[in-house]
Predict the structure.
Amino acid sequence: MRLVILALDTATDVTTVCLAVDGEVHEVAAEPRRHAAQGVLVDAAALLDRAGLAPAAIDQVVVGTGPGGYTGLRIGIAGGRGLAAALGIPIGGISTLHALLCGDGVELALIDARRGQIFAAGGGLAPRVLAPVELAALVEPGLTAVGDGAVRYRDVLSALAIPPDDSPLHVPWARHHAALAATAGPAEPLYLRAPDIDRRVLAGAAR
């Protein structure tokens, strides 16, 4: 029996979409830019067309749950939920950090959290958010670290082994989400830090 999984990740500026058909992968990654997440369902439709399949052929949707950019993350999860609901199929979530850790030889996943911080997991660390200098003091030198956080803070994290900026290891490929579909959890965002809007509301309430 054929198994078709649609996976997508919109937690970072590089949106990825994968259609896995019995393990055969059709995948696309958007060029790094803000608001790339807005085209995720268009990319999904293009992959279905390329594979000669209709949306009704999808058996499961898997979305990246972050952490990452609040807006992009919500767009991807909402799009995945809407599609799953319309088709009457299950949806699950896989952490974007977990997906990055599936890269060949990767030991530490780092996503740019903005505001001078990094979302990190691996190397003995549970998922967390912290400053680059704090991370450098916590992990062993020489670990292979990937993700846009590793690229942005390469100078601070010079003791780590960080692939070249254009390495595909820095991309949270949706094929890893598809491969982990059987272990997917709820399709709920993993923030690790209060979204900016919540921080503004709390700040206003404290005045």
Q: What stands out?
A: Confidence is low (pLDDT under 50) at residues 199-203.
